[in-house]
Amino acid sequence: MDEDHFMEDEEEEEEEFDSSDKPSLPYNALPRSTRMNVQRSNVCSRAYFVVVMVFFHVYIINVIALLLYVHYNNGPGDLGGGDVAVSDPGNGLPQPAPSTAELQVEEQGQSFSLPRIEGIRVGHVQWVTLVPGRTVEMKTLSLKPLLFEIPGFLSEEECRVVVQLAQLKGLMDSHTTTPGQGQESHHPLLSLSSEEVFSLLDLNQDGLLQKHEIVSHSRSQDGTWLSPDNLRQILTGLEACSTGMLTLGDFRQVYDVSQLPGQQHSVKLHSDFKKRSKHTWLYQGQESHHVLQALRNRVISLTRLPSALVELSEPLQVIRYEHGDFSDAHYDSSPSRSETPCSHTRLAGNTSALTEVSCRYLTVLFYLSSVDDGGETTFPVADNRTYEEQALVQDGVDLTDTQQTCDKGNLRMKPTAGTALLWYNHLSDGRGWMGELDEYSLHGDCPLRRGVKWVANSWVNVDPDHQQQARYQRLVAQRQQATSGIEDHYQSLSHSDLHQDL
Ligand SMILES: O=C(O)CCC(=O)C(=O)O
Ligand SMILES: [Fe+2]
């Protein structure tokens, strides 16, 4: 396993100027005094000065460009420093949580910014006070993705309570896609012919496919019916038809193309994704167990995000792994695409959208039990110099297949009860909001070899479209005023699909 972490090297070129230029006339042809004049005028000539100044300016511009690059890749909080959650050892306590006034301004959509913790460098340790009188260490594990380890985030007692609450609630099989084990596939239609799919979509059986038929049949919570890429391909084909309808022949052309490998984003990651575990969801709102509320408040303190964002995010997902359980490498969030709305804000936007995706700015993973053998969380490409999806599968070695290649990942974390990992699934957009999916945030879970592993995912949902996020928060606030309790809003607005099992 390559555990090396490396920073980007900046190559600097030294410019050398040859000050020993010779006059073009033969040396011996000139009297001594003339020779001296020629040499001095070469060194101090206007042209020489201009060249030096040009190189000097280019150098300065390079330095400024480098600083801007670093600034925008780490988010605007990095240079300003005022928004970061933590302080270096000896620098005192972290900044207080954002005030209510700041949050209201954000909710009105006038000022949006997402604080981002600075990583500084791999191994860098910062201190963070999560509750008064309890300061814990936060260590940078990688810069790509921006990943931190916080030992002692939960006490032993808190781990026990969360596990017991999950058991009390009851756990269900996680959505898995192991072909041949009778489990649901992410592409249940792959075994159907294009004629069969056409017929299924053709609601009125008139032999023609209209847009509303594709849309109404294909909408799904998790994209398992038709993948977003399939849909895009089919709709693009439809739009290219002057009649606005697809015959079976037209459909065959677009559908068959959409099934080809390479036509789908991350085809490997989608089609072969495997996972085995059990999970449940624990609501963390006002009426919930005080430990769950405390953990949510701690996530607010740790991330420095506006509390409204964290409070309107998904419930806590608790997962139990038994012997042999695992999860292939995956992303917790989705690529930011304007045509695919986020699940958490869907009611505040265009509900005729085809599919919806999870938009999770960051993940805070709690280890609720320690594990001796297996069960590590792996980040196979953490701090790689480059990310190339094709390179994940090379020479028969598939880095996303954690059952086979867990030991080949760049970074593996052994579960220790009470430790939390925090990583950003998205980059900054350079303007203080959430940007593109960070491809280096790919991670998985190695097969468990001994004991039982318990973890919990605390995901913070953010819409890459900050106006959509603002609309959603305004809508929640309005409903909150109109009804008596916040629980109703959660049930009606926020992750109702996830709450159904609560
Ligand atoms: O259990 C782990 O170590 C990772 C879990 C995970 O990545 C997930 O549930 O999304
Ligand atoms: Fe994950």
Outline of this structure?
The chain is an alpha+beta fold and 502 residues long.
CATH architecture of the largest domain: Sandwich
Structural class: alpha+beta
How many domains is the backbone divided into? 3
- Give the biggest beta sheet: 9 strands, antiparallel
- Report the average pLDDT across residues: 76
Spatial ordering of strands, largest sheet? 1-2-3-16-11-20-9-8-4
- What is the 3D form? globular
The small-molecule ligands in this entry are: 2-oxoglutaric acid, fe (ii) ion
User: How many strands in all?
Assistant: 20
**How much helical structure, as a percent, in the residues?**
25-40%
Give the C-alpha Rg. 28 Å
Q: How many angstroms separate the termini?
A: 41 Å
CATH class label of the largest domain:
Mainly Beta
What is the fold-level CATH name, i.e. the topology of the largest domain? Jelly Rolls
Tally of DSSP helical segments: 16
How large a portion of the residues is in β-strands, by DSSP E? 15-25%
- Which residues sit in consecutive blocks of at least 5 with pLDDT less than 50? 1-38, 74-110, 178-189, 218-224, 261-271, 486-502
Q: At the fourth CATH level, what is the homologous superfamily of the largest domain?
A: q2cbj1_9rhob like domain
